[in-house]
């Protein structure tokens, strides 16, 4: 099979491979946005004998996407920028949520994790130009907040695999693509200047980027250099609850039902509740560099590098009530009980733990790759690449720990799902700093996390023509191998300064008899009174909008951090440390075919994966457990443990598409897929928490998740850029990692080794449990409305996912799968002409489970969430345009509840607006 002629043989032969992607498969579903879909971005400059239509704008994007989709067989969705630097959303995860079956979670209102078809983000594989991106977030999933969209040319979401695709995605694979200079094929300079306005903070901050590409005259060498900087000043308003604690009156020494007798009656009440203000400054700096060289028409060599740094400096000021901790002699002064649930509880002497813990972190991501394509002859193409990537995070969460004894009452009797009302008893002044005592200084200090990955791969494509029968032939044979080595290290480093030591440094009077040893904290408290506190909440609850909280900056103005470090105790290592090494060897073979006058296309293949795993961690000595009541911290001596294991999996796949008519295409896919457990789960480490009476163990013997999946897709192309498709799917998941639980007696003391207490703890141990059958369907509809108004149109998609309930705890109840939203949908309306384009996008995600059991067995759920966004652009000249983006226009809030629909959290991040200018030359 010869696609090569003349001096441009490499480009043509390589293009032939891309044209043959109908056999390799990548179905493209367009979205109604002002940008271009280009599934073949890496071959934008090709010989004129190969017709690849160049399209711009919304209508051209949809037309191109539907034409490409008709000829391909593997189910995938692609979002491509109309031009580099013109991605439809500033955040990549927020673009991905427009795709059917894709849902996201948010951090401070910004998309960070991606879920595909109802499974949690840990089941999604995130790649950068086909390579694994590490993440120092603790799991395998990648946090999109570290990567800006300015340099991204396309996002690819693969929902069904073929044998050449890397394993590790039980739900799907997301590939983030950046451009190569010779694929752009011309020199250019693209720059943008934007301002970002945050509604809650009232601050406007910059967003700046520049991307320069230089290509020589014969298109044999080029470089791309990019730089991006943005800053956000955020203000988030929180309500947080930690679950319904079951307790006996006699165990707490409180007369909950006010019947005059403290007996063994058992009730459920809020363990702790926080009203909080979080302020953060977020700065992101990213550099991109790519060099590409084609010394001949047979060789393509590229060197790619990317560095991104993401800094967060902030603090979360709490108005916190630990209803489980009441001062000796304290009592209940009000209560309202329904069954065994205390809907309203007023307590004299409740723990008012008002600190402002810092949230400072530095996150860096480095990625570099060297690769080549070598056209051995007309029918053989060899690709090889070596890549290295590392993500590092250093974080501190420091607190001046204080305690007040409030006379306060919570009440959610009128609205379980809303914020509970919080009132103070008459005669108590919550703004009197003398009500608070300092318990010392503590927290994580420069705590490290590292995630490092090395990939080496080689792929061989052999274009063949093996005819079988009159109208059926095998057209390509692909095979290859890959070696990956990934290491994950979660460190532990903590500082503790006792209240006695701190009092001496500050010249304060220390009293050993108050709160176990403390001093007056009035001089180190600040008043917090956020404007428009919870203005996104529309319930009837009343709550304080002004409170006192200990301010770490105020403390550090009296004594430096270096002095605190020198005087305090630094604890490193211990039970929280995780160290895992994973080496993976994989190989594959794939055969592609065509028949029935090219109406039938498909491939089948097999991938074999061998995994070697080595993990180490620390095991606690339970005879040494000590608990710091003031800081709610647990300390224990540990010893190191390590373990190795190996396993091999065989993953077959089959994909098929058939053109039933000129307008109708049917697809079928079947595959066995796998995902590995989070690296933290694979450690032999064990941690203990006296505060909530739990023991959490990891398990290096947990097996990978395996599933068999079947996909169908029925597609009708009824006009240019118009499409209606229905895509049912099913996954048969062999097993999930569940948490076995068992009671265990533990004896602990205070920090001085005194006041011994023996109590019942719950040990959680992950293990492989029963699986689940998951099934659902996606509906996509793209509709131009030129018959109404020229340039008007819309797209809509709707996804439904069902899954059998599973046991998240051994012998526990059947519960809905964590992270599963049964329904999600998107609706996008657009209008464009030669100078103006606008998009109004609405996204909805159904309620889902965060944790079916949680500490006290009442579970944690995120309620349904909807968001309306708007974007527009106006072309001032051929090279300059003005852009506007408005996110969360209606100021929606995220709400969490428990299994009784009692509120467990509310986050109000406000709306966000971006205005800027983009220039391209």
From TrEMBL:
One of its GO terms (cellular component) is cell outer membrane. CDD domains: ligand_gated_channel. SUPFAM superfamilies: Porins. InterPro entries: Beta-barrel_TonB, Beta-barrel_TonB_sf, Plug_dom, Plug_dom_sf, TonB-dep_rcpt-like, TonB_rcpt_bac. It is found in: Cell outer membrane. The keyword Plastid does not apply. Its main location: membrane. Keywords: Cell outer membrane, Membrane, Receptor, Signal, TonB box, Transmembrane, Transmembrane beta strand, Transport. It is a multi-pass membrane protein. PANTHER family: PLUG DOMAIN-CONTAINING PROTEIN, TONB-DEPENDENT RECEPTOR-LIKE BETA-BARREL DOMAIN-CONTAINING PROTEIN. This is Iron complex outermembrane receptor protein.
């Amino acid at each position: 099979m010869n696609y090569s002629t003349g001096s441009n043989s490499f480009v043509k032969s390589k293009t032939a491979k891309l044209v043959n992607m109908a056999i390799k498969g990548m179905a493209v579903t367009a979205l109604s946005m002002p940008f271009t879909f280009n599934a073949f971005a890496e071959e934008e400059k090709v010989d004129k004998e190969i017709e690849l239509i160049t399209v711009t704008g919304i209508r051209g994007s949809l037309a191109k996407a539907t034409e490409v989709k008709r000829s391909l067989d593997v189910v995938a969705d692609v979002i491509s920028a109309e031009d580099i630097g013109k991605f439809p959303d500033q955040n990549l995860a927020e673009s991905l949520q427009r795709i059917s079956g894709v849902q996201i979670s948010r951090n401070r209102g910004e998309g960070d994790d991606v879920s595909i078809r109802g499974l949690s983000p840990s089941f999604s594989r995130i790649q950068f130009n086909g390579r694994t991106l590490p993440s120092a977030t603790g799991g395998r999933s990648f946090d999109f907040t570290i990567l800006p969209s300015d340099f991204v040319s396309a996002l690819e979401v693969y929902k069904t695999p073929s044998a050449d695709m890397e394993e590790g995605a039980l739900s799907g694979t997301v590939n983030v693509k950046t451009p190569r200079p010779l694929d752009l094929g011309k020199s250019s300079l693209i720059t943008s200047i934007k301002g970002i306005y945050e509604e809650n903070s009232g601050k406007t901050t910059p967003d700046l980027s520049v991307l320069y590409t230089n290509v020589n005259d014969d298109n044999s060498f080029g470089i791309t250099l990019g730089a991006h900087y943005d800053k956000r000043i955020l203000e988030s308003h929180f309500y947080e609850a930690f679950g319904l604690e079951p307790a006996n009156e006699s165990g707490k020494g409180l007369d909950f039902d006010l019947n005059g007798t403290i007996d063994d009656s058992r009730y459920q009440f809020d363990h702790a509740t926080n009203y909080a203000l979080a302020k953060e400054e977020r700065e992101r700096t990213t550099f991109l560099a790519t060099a590409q060289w084609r010394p001949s028409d047979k060789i393509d060599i590229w060197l790619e590098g990317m560095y991104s740094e993401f800094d967060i400096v902030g603090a979360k000021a709490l108005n916190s009530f630990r209803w489980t901790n009441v001062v000796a002699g304290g009592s209940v002064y009000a209560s309202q009980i329904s069954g065994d649930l205390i809907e309203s509880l007023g307590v004299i002497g409740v723990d008012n733990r008002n600190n402002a813990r810092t949230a400072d972190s530095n996150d860096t991501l480095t990625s570099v790759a060297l690769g080549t394509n070598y056209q051995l002859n007309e029918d053989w193409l060899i690709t090889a690449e070596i890549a290295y990537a590392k993500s590092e995070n250093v974080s501190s969460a420091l607190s001046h720990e204080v305690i007040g004894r409030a006379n306060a009452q919570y009440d959610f009797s009128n609205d379980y799902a809303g914020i509970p009302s919080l009132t103070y008893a008459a005669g108590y002044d919550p703004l009197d700093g003398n009500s608070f005592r300092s318990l010392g200084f503590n927290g994580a200090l420069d705590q490290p996390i590292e995630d490092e990955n090395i990939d080496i791969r080689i792929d061989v494509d052999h274009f063949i023509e093996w005819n079988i029968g009159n109208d059926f032939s095998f057209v390509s044979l692909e095979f290859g191998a890959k070696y990956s080595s990934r290491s994950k290290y979660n460190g532990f480093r903590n500082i503790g300064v006792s209240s006695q030591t701190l009092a001496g440094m500050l010249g304060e009077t220390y009293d050993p008899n108050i709160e176990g040893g403390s001093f007056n904290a009035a001089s180190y408290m600040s008043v917090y009174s956020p404007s428009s506190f919870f203005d996104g909440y529309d319930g009837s609850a009343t709550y304080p909008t002004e409170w006192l909280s200990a301010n770490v900056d105020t403390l550090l103005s009296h004594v430096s951090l270096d002095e605190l470090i020198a005087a305090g105790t630094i604890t490193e290592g211990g039970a929280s440390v995780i160290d895992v090494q994973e080496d993976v060897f994989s190989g594959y073979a794939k055969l592609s075919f065509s028949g029935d006058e090219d109406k039938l296309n498909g491939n089948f293949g097999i991938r074999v994966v061998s995994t070697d795993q080595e993990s180490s961690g620390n095991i606690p000595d339970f005879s040494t457990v000590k608990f710091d009541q003031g800081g709610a911290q647990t300390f224990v001596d540990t010893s190191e443990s390590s373990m190795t294991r190996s396993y091999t999996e065989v993953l077959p796949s089959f994909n098929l598409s058939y053109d039933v008519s000129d307008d109708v295409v049917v697809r079928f896919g079947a595959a066995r897929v796998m995902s590995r457990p989070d690296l933290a789960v694979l450690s032999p480490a064990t941690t203990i928490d006296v505060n909530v009476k739990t023991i959490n163990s990891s398990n290096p013997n947990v097996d990978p998740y395996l599933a068999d999946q079947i996909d169908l897709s029925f597609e009708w192309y009824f006009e240019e850029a118009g499409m209606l498709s229905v895509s049912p799917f099913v996954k048969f998941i062999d097993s999930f990692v569940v948490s076995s639980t068992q009671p265990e007696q533990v004896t602990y003391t205070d920090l001085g080794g005194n006041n011994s207490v023996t109590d019942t703890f719950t040990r959680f141990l992950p293990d492989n449990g029963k699986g689940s059958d998951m099934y659902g369907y996606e509906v996509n509809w793209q509709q131009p409305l030129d018959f109404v108004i020229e340039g008007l149109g819309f797209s809509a998609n709707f996804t439904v996912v069902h899954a059998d309930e599973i046991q998240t705890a051994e012998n526990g109840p059947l519960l809905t799968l964590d992270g599963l939203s049964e329904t999600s949908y998107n609706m996008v309306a657009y209008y464009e002409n030669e100078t103006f384009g606008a998009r109004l996008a609405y996204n909805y995600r159904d309620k889902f489970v965060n944790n079916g059991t949680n500490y006290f067995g009442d579970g944690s759920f995120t309620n349904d969430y909807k968001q309306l966004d708007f974007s527009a652009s106006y072309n001032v000249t051929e090279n300059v345009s003005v852009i506007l983006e408005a996110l969360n226009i209606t100021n929606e809030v995220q709400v969490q509840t428990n299994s009784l629909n009692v509120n467990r959290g509310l986050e109000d991040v406000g709306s966000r607006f971006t205005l800027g200018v983009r220039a391209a030359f």
